[in-house]
Design a protein that fits this description.
The structure holds 2 protein chains of 2 kinds. By secondary structure, chain A is mostly helical. Chain A has 14 helices and 2 strands. Chain A has a two-stranded antiparallel ribbon with strand order 1-2. The longest helix of chain A is centred in the first third of the chain and has 34 residues. The mean pLDDT of chain A is about 90. Chain B is built from 14 helices and no strands. The radius of gyration of chain B is 25 Å and the shape is globular. Classes of the chains: A mainly alpha, B mainly alpha. At the A-B interface, helix 1, helix 3, helix 4, helix 5 and helix 6 of A face helix 2, helix 3, helix 5, helix 6 and helix 7 of B.
């Protein structure tokens, strides 16, 4: 159309401005800051690769990385796993489908902070929900947020929060499988569990891949669950909370930025790795 | 005759399989999971109507004689109402900007042909790899220098930028499916590009705009990390930052904590129940794949 050039520029400008000022520029600025030793915003000294060398010898960072990876493992196995199982089941039943869809999505719309606070009330040693149940059953109380349990205790709300989201994605993918596939399978005598492993799952493999990638990048960003439930104490520090403490609590912007860059690199590597391992061909019906 | 017989056959099959053991097992598992999503919410609301000592000692009992003491504390002492308003203004503002700017960009990317389109898409996808952690320090610096930290803009601007990619990709995905004839008819009627956007593309793409606004609102409303850094002063604090404050300051007041959680969660849940159809529609249209 005539005069389109003008409109292209005008319509794209606000987005370009927002992205440049609040995403691209800050990202490169973080990269730049990662080569400086800083004191507040105004006092900084170029130190070359010093911050990156510090990364390799920072044992707290190593621990945070391991905790993040452990959390990621729980998320991939349980969050994605439970979502898949629930989706297969809902896809196979004929009644109350709508009810389960609505109800399973509840935690997704609730803020992570509220869920975390809820779990603080569950885990409380003296008066929490879990220990009240144990006490009612005549069992001994458990210290849920002890050094050995705390990370698993944080993993539970993290997993629970997003199961519903992946569940809906899976269910949507399954609803796109044409019915003839199932009818053909029926003629071949394939049903029940076999139908799931031989038909449904292979057909939605590309969606499983997308979900696993989302789960990986999602667990790199975990923050509020750890922050509210345990403040990173008792072996629960993850990269998100560690970065926050270094960069914003200690106001060490240089090293904090280095940690952020490390998180980006690690996230990209893991996502690429997952995509490599789960290589599958796109299916169109 | 043949089809009729077939039909009866399948009906009978469905009936018998409905009562099979496997199906029963599935319903049991699904019901069990739905209890994990419903019961905690009930527990929290129920306990919000008890005094703290009852929350601690009798958390399972029904609040048959509800007390409102926690609610009055929440509104009078920690001013949760103010945080509500803050949250609404900031998340509402973010949604508005994201829809407008994302919608315009999506319109250009989906309906115009020009050379820079591919590089722009690549740049957009690249932003998906940048988490908030990697931008927070310089953004904080910008906000301090411009005096926007601890103002509503201090959260609206970065969150708008953070959600634009998602919005643009989803809306553009929807707009590419709109028939070309519609555009041509509008052109013949003398519409310019802006009028075309307002009168045709925006109304026709309403489902995409609706689902984007829901998700952007949720993500903005629930974003603790940005709130803690950019707007953590009492006068502008959104509700998630207040919750975090409550957990560290009033960690022993169980009744108040339960009430704060209930007050944060229930309005969102009620709205969700009304619009859950849109959410699923948004997801169904391949939204998240972007």
């Amino acid at each position: 159309m005539k005069g389109d050039r003008k409109y292209i520029l005008i319509f794209l400008f606000p987005m370009a401005a927002f992205m440049s000022i609040f995403l691209y520029y800050p990202f490169f600025k973080s990269l730049y800051l990662s080569f400086f030793r800083t004191k507040g915003f105004f006092d900084k000294k170029f130190v070359g690769w010093d911050n990156y060398e510090r990364l390799t010898s920072d044992s707290l960072l190593g621990a945070s990385t391991l905790h993040t990876l452990e959390l990621m493992l729980y998320v991939i196995i349980f969050q994605v796993g439970i979502a898949l199982v629930l989706a297969v089941m809902v896809d196979n039943i004929s009644k109350f489908q709508g009810f389960f869809r609505t109800v399973f999505f509840f935690p997704v719309v609730i803020s992570g902070t509220a869920i975390s606070l809820l779990f603080v009330l569950f885990y409380n040693y003296n008066f929490g929900l879990l220990n009240s149940i144990l006490a009612n059953l005549g069992l001994e109380k458990v210290l849920w947020l002890s050094e050995s349990n705390a990370l698993k205790a944080v993993a539970v709300p993290t997993v629970w929060h997003y199961v519903g989201f992946y569940f809906v994605l899976f269910l949507t993918a399954m609803s796109k499988i044409p019915n003839d596939y199932y009818e053909a399978a029926k003629l071949e005598g394939i049903k029940g569990f076999q139908k799931m492993t031989k038909l449904t799952i292979p057909l939605i493999l590309s969606d499983i891949k997308v979900v696993i990638t989302l789960a990986i990048t999602g667990s790199m960003k975990v923050f509020e669950f750890v922050w509210v439930v345990s403040r990173g104490k008792n072996n629960t520090e993850v990269l998100g909370t560690y970065m926050y403490k270094k960069a914003l609590v200690d106001q060490n912007f240089g090293y904090g930025s280095t940690i952020a860059i490390y998180m980006v690199v690690l996230g990209v590597i893991l996502a690429l790795l997952a995509n490599r391992l789960l290589k599958s061909e796109e299916i169109t019906y | 005759m043949q089809p009729v017989i077939n039909n009866e056959h399948t009906i009978r099959r469905v009936k018998t399989s409905r009562f099979s053991l496997g199906t029963l097992f599935m319903y049991i598992v699904l019901t069990a999971w739905s209890l994990t999503t419903i019961y905690p919410l009930f527990w929290i609301v129920n306990n919000s109507f008890k005094v703290s000592s009852d929350v601690m000692n009798k958390s399972f009992s029904l609040a048959l004689e509800p007390v409102l003491v926690n609610y009055t504390t929440a509104f009078d002492r920690i001013n949760i109402g103010k945080s509500y308003i803050n949250s609404l203004i900031m998340s509402g503002g973010t949604v508005l900007f994201v829809l407008l700017f994302g919608g315009l960009a999506a319109y250009v990317l989906s309906r115009f042909t020009f050379k820079a389109k591919r590089p722009i898409y690549s740049l957009l996808y690249a932003t998906l790899l940048i988490p908030a952690f990697a931008t927070v320090v310089p953004v904080y610096e910008i906000l301090i220098k411009t005096g926007l930290v601890n103002t509503y803009w201090g959260l609206i601007l970065p969150q708008t930028a953070g959600n634009l990619t998602f919005a643009t990709l989803v809306i553009a995905g929807y707009m590419t499916t709109i028939a070309k004839e519609l555009e041509e008819a509008a052109f013949i009627d003398g519409c310019n590009r802006w009028q075309m956007f307002v009168k045709i593309f925006f109304p026709v793409s309403r489902p995409a705009f609706a689902s984007v606004s829901i998700f952007v609102f949720l993500w903005s409303y629930n974003d603790l990390f940005s709130a803690l850094i950019f707007v953590n002063k009492e006068s502008v604090r959104p509700i998630v930052a207040l919750l975090n404050e409550i957990s560290s300051q009033y960690g022993t007041d169980f009744g108040l904590m339960a009430t704060a959680v209930a007050l944060t969660v229930i309005p969102v849940l009620i709205i969700y129940l009304f619009i859950s159809k849109f959410i699923e529609k948004g997801l169904t249209e391949g939204a998240i794949k972007g």
